[in-house]
Amino acid sequence: MKKIKIKPKPTSVLPNDSVTTTTTSTTTLTRMTTSASAITSETSNHDDNSSEIKELKDDIFNLKKELIELKTQFDIFKQQQESWSHSQHQSHHHQSHQSQHFCSCDFIEWVNTLEITPADLERLFKSKDICDWACSLIVDDLKKKTFEHVPICSIKGSKNDILIYTSNRWMKPTDEELSLQFVNKLFKKLLRSFTDWKNENYKLIMMNDKIGTIYHTNNARILSFNENTVKLKHKLFHALNMN
């Protein structure tokens, strides 16, 4: 009897099964892509938040620093105001006290009587600072006078304020007033005295190197004397305080 072999039929893939498989793969890929995008987005948002927090911290730090600087400046300003107020109080008190003293000599009149002698010039030639020399000249002249109250004094407790007695009252001159009423007049007296010395020693100045050097050195100092009002006032303030 002859045997019959039966071949199994090949399994065929239905169209619908193919579509289903493709759709499933696509869906899975889409989900993976969406998930990755979400993770990336969350990471980006986290970085943005961290950056904003850092900026806020920096801003707060800078604000604190500015507040500290403002407080320091305010404290300095407050101290200066208190110091100025105290100085003004002492100045007004001293000025009020001084105004009670009648002075027999007017400041302008006293300045007009000032003289610069050859001996005074010799001291100038030996001095290192012309303003120091002028202060010594003024203080020495005041000591020679028989004033009960001198017509110029410094205000103790002030920075460098000076009082002068003129027109029957005590006043605090400005730098410009002190320059016009005192420094310029002293400058003219000094220049006139120095010119007289130069004329008397003209030949020595031309022939003797030492005398010539003295002339040229002091000529430059004297010609610029009236430009030293502020410096002279400061030095005179301390000189008057010491006497």
Properties at a glance:
243 residues, single chain, elongated, 3 strands, 8 helices, 5% strand, three-stranded antiparallel sheet, mainly alpha, 2 domains
What oligomeric state is this? single chain
| Overall average residue pLDDT | 79
Uncertain regions spanning at least 5 consecutive residues: 12-23, 93-99
H/I helix tally: 8
N-to-C CA distance: 159 Å
Q: What can be said about the biggest beta sheet?
A: 3 strands, antiparallel
The general outline is elongated
Supply the helix-strand structural class.
mainly alpha
Could you say how many structural domains there are in total? 2
Helix content estimate: over 70%
If you compute it from the alpha carbons, what radius of gyration comes out, rounded to the nearest whole angstrom?
48 Å
Succession of helices and strands: HHHHEEEHHHH
Beta-strand share of residues? under 5%
Number of DSSP strand runs: 3
Strand order of the largest sheet: 1-2-3
Describe this structure in words.
The chain has 243 residues and is mainly alpha-helical. The chain has 2 domains: 33-100; 102-241, no CATH class. The chain has helices at residues 15-99, 107-113, 118-126, 130-144, 175-200, 202-207, 209-223, 229-241; strands at 152-154, 162-166, 169-171. The chain has a 3-stranded antiparallel beta sheet with strand order 1-2-3. Strand 1 and strand 2 form a beta hairpin. It is elongated, with a radius of gyration of 48 Å. Mean pLDDT is 79; it is low at 12-23 and 93-99.
